[in-house]
Fold this protein.
Amino acid sequence: MLTSVLDRIDATRDAARARLFEFLAIPSVSAQPDHAADCAAAAEWAAAHLRGSGFMARLCPTPGHPVVLAHHPGTGGAGAPHLLFYGHYDVQPAEPLELWHSPPFAPVVVEGRHGPRVVARGAVDDKGQVSMWLEAFRAWHEIAGGPPCRITVAIEGEEETGSRNLAGFLEAERAALAADVAVISDTNMWSIDQPAITTRLRGMVYAQVTLRAASRDLHSGLYGGAALNPINALTQLLGSLHGADGRVQIPGFYDAVAPLPPRLAEQWARLGFDESAFLGEVGLTQPAGEAGFSALERLWARPTADINGIWGGYQGAGPKTVIAAEAGAKVSFRLVPGQDPARIAADFRRFLEARAPAGADLSVDIFSAEPAIEVPEASPFVAHAAAALRAEYGRDPVLIGGGGSIPVVASLKHRLGLETVLMGFGLDDDQIHSPNEKFELRCLDHGTRAHARFLAELAV
Amino acid sequence: MLTSVLDRIDATRDAARARLFEFLAIPSVSAQPDHAADCAAAAEWAAAHLRGSGFMARLCPTPGHPVVLAHHPGTGGAGAPHLLFYGHYDVQPAEPLELWHSPPFAPVVVEGRHGPRVVARGAVDDKGQVSMWLEAFRAWHEIAGGPPCRITVAIEGEEETGSRNLAGFLEAERAALAADVAVISDTNMWSIDQPAITTRLRGMVYAQVTLRAASRDLHSGLYGGAALNPINALTQLLGSLHGADGRVQIPGFYDAVAPLPPRLAEQWARLGFDESAFLGEVGLTQPAGEAGFSALERLWARPTADINGIWGGYQGAGPKTVIAAEAGAKVSFRLVPGQDPARIAADFRRFLEARAPAGADLSVDIFSAEPAIEVPEASPFVAHAAAALRAEYGRDPVLIGGGGSIPVVASLKHRLGLETVLMGFGLDDDQIHSPNEKFELRCLDHGTRAHARFLAELAV
């Protein structure tokens, strides 16, 4: 049966690709209010795809963008496991648009060093990865009348903006979401030929900081020397976030960081990560960050503070002698196991309040606060995923960490008691969140087949 | 004769106002390349106005915007003095547009606490102030066939972007610009009823700083902890510009600052400046700046560093988990007598270079570097201006400093050997360089009459 399913996937590649292109053409940017209708359209698109594979699907409204919720009873016996597939149909903003080589929502296939790749916003994060399991379901449906195990699907539309309505959805649909394990494809392979399962992800606190001073912009000649300059003050505040050793200066920031298990550190060391190549690929000549740790440890096991955006005053051409009325920044912290995101958010606020100059109006908005997660490596579902990857690639997958955050993994664990298998097919150079985001078709095709194999592995 | 000229000014106010509105309606923003044609139109407008008052006028091209150059031989004897009136027809960018109560280039008269005022970009800086002497020339022309002394006029179009082509113009037209003294109206009164002559102005160095790191924007989860973040680095660099005492930390920054003459310090102290009211009017509750100096000293006699703009990464709504490829800022220094702008610019560059992180690509562009200036208070032309103001207002003018820069004053002195009389009619709350810039009609009318009187004072 699996052979027929895999053959079907191979034989219908063009149709699957056309479906993915439809999905990618919908500019479902969750952060930008004027794309709300596009988000709804992307949700409808995914629901229709699932219905075409025999699923019962509906859109669950939230205060933000809807969640696609779908079920298939499967063709397996009563003892077959029940999987919850989670993905997201929303994408990052495409800006800066002028750096794209083709329009971000007009997907194209171009040749790269690994062969053809699809280029579009969302190509890999997460529409392309979601489409792998959507197409695996489609093939099982067409060959066998459905997947060999019971499946629930939840595809949300606010992952890129902090999943702020996901908790409410999980609580409201708790009964409909009952499953044995969650499966997510939103992570990377170790390399194009080396499959990987991610067992460790950093958490995140994301904040927006605004400093206001005068009631209007001021002339820097007439007021300079007597008037509080909020940009001066903001650079002082944020410039003091790191010490000379790259460590975050918020008091107690590292207190709860759990030490990396030596076994995991050893395995990571064996991966032979080439930091110079990793950085050189994006034009960096020097490592940065916290002193005293290996590159993989800094990426997978150490917390960070990064200013993701800053603004204030005049940004146009030429000079303008102005003292701005306000300045702002977006600041995020990547967290590791042990760190409490609520405490980090509160400590950051306190750090800023203690240093803000008198007369400045400081506001700190916390967009999201999610803990880091660890997946038990001994899980039988991890073993099934590893077997599927081994069969597809002819080699064992490696267990890796990830520097990014997938907050839903923590929510699934804490709210529904579910562990998550993270089997992803992205590559480090996929430029997610950047212009010219891409997904290798080789990864897409293997990923679709690996998901079909994974379902077969779980059949009773 | 003067009485007839003043009567003529009073009788033709409406026509003069209509002319000023025409001038203000031209969006001659010198910093924005798409307004180049508007700058040329404003220059043509001013030349036509002068021709209508019997001047010979032409536009002198520069690599940037043209300079209006005009002459009138005057009706006085050979011994009458020769004045060089300088002004500028360019204006600051009007952004942020959403904060204007009426369109910036659609001048309107609205009622304020001092009676009617004209609101528009350039209302006072410098189109409104230029129009005072243009209208004084017009009245003298209509009553007496011309002004009682010889007059040269130079109106440039790049004052708001650092006058970068003015030096070349002054050298090229050196012969045509020969005069006994320069006269500029681009400064403020002490208050609506207290005329003032400015004898001290700060200089300025204006720089743009850019830090580049990776060749593209990066995902802060995948790269955070290993990749140089140029916004983090820029806030550290610029956040170290000031010490806790508000002093600029560039080594040697204060070394050459000339001490304030005690006589001037005493006179300023007698002005009874109300710092709380000055700051409170713009919504500030606390003084900022360098410790150990009075407010007027900090505004008029102490150097500053202000970040006038900053940018980098994501500035839109919501979160975006990006590490930007580059970040930048505009930074200006107000300088006082004794400080060498070239040395300050070089020291700032060295300060940044010494602190920029390894692997960052730092660039520093200097837009302008002009020294502070002092006008000799004993000049007979200052005495004539004081007499004109005394006659118009019925009280002695005060001698004040100014926090802003009028770089041309230093250029006129160093290149043409001319001192400058700074007789201005703006008020501190005119919101120059800000939304809703205004000029009190009371100031405009007195200023026009005072200029007509000043010319009569100089008649032989």
User: Anything to note?
Assistant: The longest helix of chain A spans residues 127-144. The mean pLDDT of chain A is 95.
